[in-house]
Amino acid sequence: MWGGHSCPPTLTMSKKANRSTIQPLSGVRVLVGRARHQAGTLSAELRRLGAQVIEIPFIEIRKPRSFQPLDAALENLAAYDWLILTSVNGVEAMWERLATLGLAGAIRDGKGQGFSRGEKGSSPAAALAAGGHIRIAAIGPATKKAIEQRGLTVDVVPKEYVAESVVQSLKKKVKGKSVLLVRAKVARDVIPRELRKAGAHVDVIEAYETVVPRSSRRRLQAASRNPRRRPHVVTFTSSSTVRNFVTLLGGSRAAARMLQAFGGQECPPHTLADRPTVASIGPVTSSTLRELGLPVDITAREFTIPGLVEAIVRRFTAAHES
What we know:
The chain is α/β, with parallel strands linked by helices. It has 13 helices and 12 strands. The strands form 3 sheets. A 5-stranded parallel sheet has the order 2-1-8-11-12. The chain has a 5-stranded mixed sheet with strand order 3-7-6-4-5. Helix 3 runs parallel beside helix 6, helix 7 runs parallel beside helix 8 (190-197) and helix 10 (239-248) runs parallel beside helix 12. The chain is elongated. The protein starts with 28 loop residues before the first strand and ends with a helix.
């Protein structure tokens, strides 16, 4: 048994084969529940390692009902000392609005040069562009990359990619400072609450919202009825994907029953699983799974998509070698 599964993984190699030919997830079906436009990176890496990927989104990203608060904050960027972005979705949503407001080009072209750190510029573009006074914090490497791809400089990335670590990285830097936190409509309040305690003035602005893709319920039910579509691994990449999975299926008990329904399929090498392995991207997501009565078999050590893939491979490789 490994992670609630009784079926061990298979490798596309013999013991004498060259280790470069290893596909540690060969024959393993993995359910990816990321938003449709974001599933590609995780799915591609899993497929590269031999997995059969089933994409059924548990989450859908939508624009906020009104852009007025976000637009007002962006037009007033020069009043802030810090900008905090906690997801790639937040970066994309913010940049889209900057483009709509005619500010993205000026920022990308570096028209803020000449403004020293600590000096508040007279325009949003100057404040955020290279050399502008606003410092930027990103919750993790994917968010950092998305910011830097748009020509901006990231000043702080926490050691661990969770809200608590963002707070640890910033709490001694923000006393008396104005902070703009751009995030989803529904999110944990750790960052604004703790930074306010540290003496910061924090504005929390909704850039997008996450909703439940209703068509996914039918697709999950169809997968549970088809032995060739039942996943051996179910991945969760955020607390929102967990909550939406539960909502999709009508509650925690129904979600637990769905996991059981995914069991019973033939697995390599032809043994039966009582339920799939549940893989979580990090401790916050794992905590949400447990709060909602769902199992956690794998928690990534590095709270990123590559970290999640590595954790899945590690579990399967260890099971095979044992």
